[in-house]
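Re: [help] complex structure
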Amino acid sequence: MATNRTFTMIKPDAVENGHIGAILEKITAAGFRIVAMKYTQLSRRDAELFYEIHKERPFFDELVTFMSRGPIVAAILEKDNAVEDFRTLIGATNPAEAAEGTIRKLFATSIGENAVHGSDSDENAAIEGAFHFSGREIF
Ligand code: CMP
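Output below.
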């Protein structure tokens, strides 16, 4: 059953390129409510744990190096049908394949450095949100 929350990160590439404000504007304009948010940086170990599901992929080391190289914005977002609607808003993993107007089409540069993360299921949204936030940080 669909729940009404998803988890996102504005990744180091988008932070470095000054896109935090524009991306948050797109997210809130699309009707998502921010219920938790922090500006933080993942250690290599944090990134390895967060992306453990991808540890056998050939790009795993590149992914961990990228995700830990600078600050990110982590957030939990609320909206009806949040997981699916957020994935529509951000577009395909590869920005070359992302639809016009999506966040990755506008702000991502490559399949690896793709500006934002969005949970791929309700179960992962809950796991990923709990990775970054305690109960008293969610409003
Ligand atoms: P994300 O949605 O955060 O989930 C897994 C991440 O792995 C993905 O975004 C990309 O940043 C990265 N990724 C996926 N495919 C590749 C690839 N072929 N090469 C490098 N990085 C990738």
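The CA atoms of residues 7 and 124 lie 8 Å apart.
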